[in-house]
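Appendix B. Chain record.
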Amino acid sequence: MKFSTQSTLKTPWKDLKLTGSRSASAIAAGIVCLSMNPASAATTAYRNLVLGDNPIVYYEFDEASGTTAANSATTGATYDGTFNTAGGAVTVGQTSFVGGGTAYDFGGGFVGSASALTGSLTEWTVEAWVNYDSAKTSASNILSNDQGGWNNDVLFGIGAEGGSQGVSAGSVGLIHQGNPGSVRDFVGSALAANEWHHVVMTGSTTAGALSLYIDGVLADSNTSLTNGITFNGAGGFGASPNLTVGAARPNSSDAGYRPYDGLLDEVAIYDSVLTPTQISAHANISIPEPGSALLLSLGGLVLLRRNRR
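Structure tokens predicted for this chain:
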């Protein structure tokens, strides 16, 4: 939606006679910002929505440069992510979904957490906005804590693991490898490539369920879990190797590296199970209309002009 100051206010800016500390030009500049920058308002709205649900890790991927992904959650800089491009590129500043600011383009590299979160998660949510490349429809891992072997590992991606105990090609999903175990629990559903989708996985020990939501709607659920649903590593959640975003394992020379190919944004992990209402709200983020603020500002400006006469 486009907004025009000319159609809203008939009096030209040059005819507004204002005195005091706030000039007409300053107010006009603020109004122009309100009318011309809905994207930043949308980004703020989505960020506030996520932070309001208390993630323990939240990567907004809004960096314009550098090799660090800032953690916006209250856990802070200890859990910032660091780029590793030995296996390929990680490119910042890419176009995201309407409320996402900017995104990262993963082309073989990954982002690894700088520190391990302590403790295991028995109730959890993993969330991201995903736009994967149609050139790679399997073994394309978005997020994992895979250490090799079976250590209550969680692997989230496109065609993750594959086979009879994994997510099929062209589908998004998550597998859980118990400790010990030989049977994977998983959920998955087809996902169109080259377009943005909101994807959420939840695991609940209390409910005994692993669930997948796509664009705010429940797409798959597994309530016949073999291994339980604890999210951790051999020494606790995120233990060496740490949490990996953009690959299955943080070593490009590892046969199990399996990097993600595509755009990714707004990656968040929670130590709780988000409700369907919360998930739907994130997927269907309401973009603030600058029109209301614009009209209010213009109205105030007109009144101020009248009062100065």
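Further analysis of this model is presented in Appendix C.
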